[in-house]
Specification:
By secondary structure, the chain is mainly α. The protein has one domain (about 1-85). The chain has 5 helices and no strands. Helix 1 packs parallel to helix 3. The longest helix has 28 residues, at about 40-70.
């Protein structure tokens, strides 16, 4: 289950985070419901396996990013967006329309 959540976090980060919250809540509720009568503590076992899967996934992602972009914290998507998209994707970033490669009617819109 930890490997599945790691793959989901790489492919769809927001949805992976949203899915991991109910899974964690379900494990905590299950642990409280069993009340410690279960011979294996489910929360402790899942904490170790999820932690190991997350650690290995973070290491693999950092290595991949380092080999592709030269920076372990910069993803290929970030490089692509900064190279190909002249307009910042965040609303908080200022944009100077005079620097955009626009012509004709497109320049009128900006």
């Amino acid at each position: 289950m930890g490997l599945g959540l790691a793959i989901l976090a790489n492919v769809r980060p927001y949805e992976g985070f949203v899915l991991s919250l109910p899974v964690a809540a379900g494990l905590l509720i299950l642990d409280e419901w069993l009340g410690g009568t279960h011979p294996v503590n489910i929360v402790e076992a899942s904490r170790f396996t999820f932690g190991a899967a997350a650690w290995n996934d973070a290491r693999a992602m950092a290595y991949y990013n380092w080999r592709v972009t030269g920076n372990p914290l910069r993803t290929p998507y970030d490089v692509s967006m900064s190279t190909m998209n002249p307009v910042p994707t965040s609303h908080g970033n200022p944009c100077d329309p005079s620097e955009l490669p626009l012509q004709g009617f497109s320049r009128f819109l900006y």
